[in-house]
Amino acid sequence: MDKYGFLDLLKKATTIAFDFAKEFVQDNLPKDFSYSVELNASYDNPTLTQFDLYPEDDNKKVEFIGEKEVVELLFRKGKIPVWIDISVECIRNNTTVLRLLCAGRYSESEDEFYYKNGGTGPFGIKSPTHPIDYLPGRKFNLKTLKD
Questions:
Q1: What value does the mean pLDDT take over residues 47-73?
Q2: Is the pLDDT reported for residue 19 higher than 90?
Q3: Are 64 and 34 in contact (CB under 8 A)?
Q4: Which of 45, 47, 101, 114 has a Cα-to-Cα distance from 56 of 20 to 30 A?
Q5: Model-level pTM?
Q6: Cβ distance 20 to 135 under 8 Å?
Q7: Is residue 46 scored above 90 in pLDDT?
Q8: Burial (Cβ within 10 Å: 0-12, 13-18, ≥19) of residue 89
Q9: Where are the domains of the chain?
Q10: What residues pair up with 84 in beta bridges, in sequence order?
């Protein structure tokens, strides 16, 4: 996969996660997007040899970046994380912010991508985080951030 293929998957996963979030939230979600990325959320065994690992990414977060910056951040030496959980997180400055929770294992092999059978490669579509008092079928509001 090249950067353009990865960008296309990011756009596809964003659309699916955006539409899925509407089932849960009351907010009128803006159609402009930014991303908050949490790297190396899998805390992998450093002795793994079939993947590229980046231990310097432990506890690293990059917030409020655009899709091109996401590609530049996650596409490394022709490889991407084997799973990336994507969900709507909040609204900030008239943009819908999507959270990307990323594995620390990078691969170029599409066979390694967790969600390849669903057509989204490494992207797993997740719901927004439900509030503590969430009741099924009842929509809730996302947090709204301002600069």
A1: 93
A2: yes
A3: yes
A4: 114
A5: 0.94
A6: no
A7: no
A8: buried
A9: 3-145
A10: 102, 123
